[in-house]
Amino acid sequence: MKDIKEITEAVRTEAKVIDQYIKRDLAALKPDLDSLLCKVLEYGLLDGGKRIRPLLVVLSARLCGNREEETYKLACAFEYLHAATLFHDDIIDNSAVRRGKPSVHEKFGTVAAILAGDFLHALAMEIVGRYCGSDGLNIFCNATRGMVDGEFMQLRNADKHNLSELDYHDAIMGKTGLLIAAACEVGAIYGGGNEAHVAALRTYGVNLGCAFQIIDDLLDYQGDPKLTGKAVGNDFSEGKMTLPLILTMNNAEEGDKSQLLTLLENRKNIDDSFDQVYTLITHYDGFEKAKSKAVAAIDNAHSALSGFKEKNTLAEKTILEGLARYVLIRKK
Amino acid sequence: MKDIKEITEAVRTEAKVIDQYIKRDLAALKPDLDSLLCKVLEYGLLDGGKRIRPLLVVLSARLCGNREEETYKLACAFEYLHAATLFHDDIIDNSAVRRGKPSVHEKFGTVAAILAGDFLHALAMEIVGRYCGSDGLNIFCNATRGMVDGEFMQLRNADKHNLSELDYHDAIMGKTGLLIAAACEVGAIYGGGNEAHVAALRTYGVNLGCAFQIIDDLLDYQGDPKLTGKAVGNDFSEGKMTLPLILTMNNAEEGDKSQLLTLLENRKNIDDSFDQVYTLITHYDGFEKAKSKAVAAIDNAHSALSGFKEKNTLAEKTILEGLARYVLIRKK
Questions:
Q1: Cβ contact B53:B180 at 8 Å
Q2: Span A81-138, pLDDT tens digits
Q3: What is the predicted ipTM?
Q4: Angle B213-B319-B214 from CA coordinates, rounded to 5°
Q5: Superfamily for A4-329?
Q6: Positive or negative CA dihedral for A188, A191, A196, A197?
Q7: Which of A109, A318, B92, B115 is deepest in the core (most CB within 10 A)?
């Protein structure tokens, strides 16, 4: 088992290769595109992201036996769809900053952000259709539709404070799980994996994505702003029900429950309310319980990889395992 | 040659069939979707539209020899993409009304309109990929990307008043021509048409779409608001350069040209300015010249159909010819 430093180094190396492919795509598109659109795409795509989704495509394909360079071209589609989603999400959430710089709609306006998102959406679909046919496209489109459906659910549930664990699971599947799972599944299909391989990598992806989101939601309460780059308590101040809070609500005694509801419904003195909510969650082990759900998901992700035993794909398996471990210990 | 009444009757009958297929799709999606998303989709899709794009898919497929009912399912994808475009365009253009009722973003908010557009976009791509493979998807995605590119060009050219006829052609191709052409081309491919048939129907579509848009732009100056449902002079009041104005600019003497530029740059007393611009366009035969470009495009559309001589597809050819004629004489 390699240590995390080696894993992050390997991830960084792959991200650089993926960046090259994205730049190549942009250069090929440039002559036929409006110059403003090009600027928006370059700004939104070349932002030093970790390229986790394309990386999962490449690793999954290799794990199933396909080591061709061509896989990177397919892999980029997942970064394009991810970016398209971010462009539109930042409008929806009214977020002015993304990775330390102005978000696309903040920099270029809402119109440009909507349109550039639509462009990347179409580009991503075309690439997946080209490399992976109708099966791949099906998975890919299902993920997009699931994301949208999840956002709608969030919109509809915005003022509800009695969400179940199942509601939360559906929401994080839409937000993160489906696209991560789709990257693994499409990579496996393109890589020529058999049915069991494809299913295993999908399971890996679903669990990785869900654990990632649970930890993200924990960091929103417990993260160090210096590392995460975000203030703590965002979710609470927006009245968003995430796992630590949901688990606390489910276990709290009536008095504490109604106190939580009052705090959620009346979030005027945020700092003070946040401290009280934090104390209640701690009292009911909400953070530990949420963390253990993430640990269980990562266990599932690990188990899903157990069927891959070929010696020549050991390096890829090790990175996938390392990514799963990293999700649990990440501080940012 | 049938008269226009018979043609519109045939179009209306087909639109009803297409509506049934759209309703069937919505009913099949419903159990898995958020209830608010369903409402938005029903509101945005079941609006009594003419369903011209799906109709072109069905007619093109039949003209190439495929009369299967299944074609309707593929055809609906073009209505979904069209609707997705309208949801986003109405945000971009800040249009509060669409076909006599509040636009989607006006009724359900910007967030819902962005998301529902993304959903339909993905649904449309998936359908085209399923029925028409990578070739169809390629054409479809190119049309989407062309639309976005056209919108960007418009954004970039918003304050330019020296557009060329070529700029205008690119803009209307993006706005209307590409998707109409894609409907015909994808229908022809699905219908099993040979290369010549596919190219011919594409040519028909490009020309039909461009003529449609030129007439639309003429109606913006000369239409009867009671029939079009829109006030005249919208394009001018937004400083939008359409064909009548571009052709006038190209032919006007220096004095008239600078008067036009002044009127365009200083559009405060709109009614008065509009009358002066209208007079100048009339003086330089801008309306007639624009109309003759539309007539030429429709001639091209007709010629493109001349290769289809099978007796059992005469009905479809007649409707396509009728649609082309209708575009020129439409008042709304």
A1: yes
A2: 999 999 999 998 888 888 888 999 999 999 999 999 999 999 999 999 999 998 999 9
A3: 0.87
A4: 10
A5: Farnesyl Diphosphate Synthase (1.10.600.10)
A6: negative
A7: B115
Q: What amino acid is encoded at B297 in this protein?
A: A
Distance from C-alpha of A292 to C-alpha of B142, rounded to nearest angstrom:
46
Residue length of chain A: 332
DSSP A283-305: HTTHHHHHHHHHHHHHHHHHHHG
Least Cα separation, residue B327 to chain A (angstroms): 29
What is the three-class DSSP state of A2?
coil
Instruction: Report the C-alpha gap between B274 and B237 in whole angstroms.
Output: 8
pLDDT confidence tier of residue B1, bands split at 50, 70 and 90: low
**Inter-residue contact A153 to B158 (CB < 8 Å):** no
Beta-carbon separation of B117 and A118 below 8 A: yes
Mutate to test the interface with A, among B34, B85, B144 (most CBs of A within 10 A): B34
- B43: Cα separation from own chain's centroid: 20
How many C-beta neighbours within 10 Å does residue B16 have?
Answer: 9
d(CA A280, CA A265): 16
Amino acid at A52: I
Q: Are A101 and A29 in contact (CB under 8 A)?
A: no
Contacts of B34 in chain A (CB under 8 A): 149, 152-153, 156
How far apart (Å, rounded) are the C-alpha atoms in residues B53 and B189? 15
Sequence-separated (6 or more) residues with CB below 8 Å from residue A303: none
Type of residue at B332: K
Chain A to chain B Cβ contacts (< 8 Å):
137
pLDDT tens, position by position, A226-272: 888 777 888 888 888 999 999 999 999 999 999 999 998 887 677 78
Which residues in chain B have their CB less than 8 angstroms from residue A77's CB?
none
Determine the pLDDT at residue B5.
Answer: 87
pTM: 0.90
